[in-house]
Amino acid sequence: MAANDNTMSSSISDEETMAIAAPSAAASQHQEGRVLPPLTSGPTLYPGCCLALSTHLVKHIRALLPPPPALTLSIGSGFGLLEALLLASPPPSLRLIGVEVQPSPNQYLDAAHHRTVQGTRFLEPLAAAATTWLFVYPRRVGLLREYMDAFGRDKVGHITWVGPQADWDVYRDCLVDWTVQVQSAGECGGRPWDVICSAQPRVS
Fold this sequence. Notes:
alpha/beta
C-alpha cells in the first residue's frame, strides 16, 4: 500500500506477521557479540544513539509502551541500542521490533527484533499490525506523515515521539487531531532540551 507516488510499502502475509510479532524466548537478548553498555543515573550519549540515555529515562520510556500481545514498532531504530535496552528491561515483557533503512547500522537487535526497508521512501508494513509507533530522533517530519497516511490515522492507538524540543514544534502539526502529552526529558533522566511526547487519537 502506498501513501503517495513516492512512498512504498512491501506486502506481508498474515502468517509472517504473526510469526514476527510473536513473543520470543530471547526477547531480552541482543545481537550476538554485542554487550549492552551499563547505564548511569545521568544522561549519557552512546555511539549510534542521538538520545542521551540513563536508567531512569529508559525505565520511563518503557512504561509508555504496551505489554504483550500489543506490538511496538520503533521506526528508525539506528544502532538499536535503545530498543535492546527496552527489551532487556525487567518484566513485564515487551514486544518490540526496530525498523531501519538498508543497509542497516543495527548492532544490538537480533533478527527476531529487527527489520529493514529498501529505502527512505519505503514503509514497514508491520506498522498496520502495531499498537504503538515509537519515533526517536526521526530524520524527517515527512516520515510520520507517510506512515499515518499509508496505514490509517485511526488504526494505531499510540505514538511516542522523543527528540529535541525545537523539532517537536514542527512534528506537532502531524498530530493536531490527537490528544498529546508533552514532558521534558529532563524530568525523567534525560537532557532538558529533549521532550517525550505521548499521543493518542482524540475520542470524538
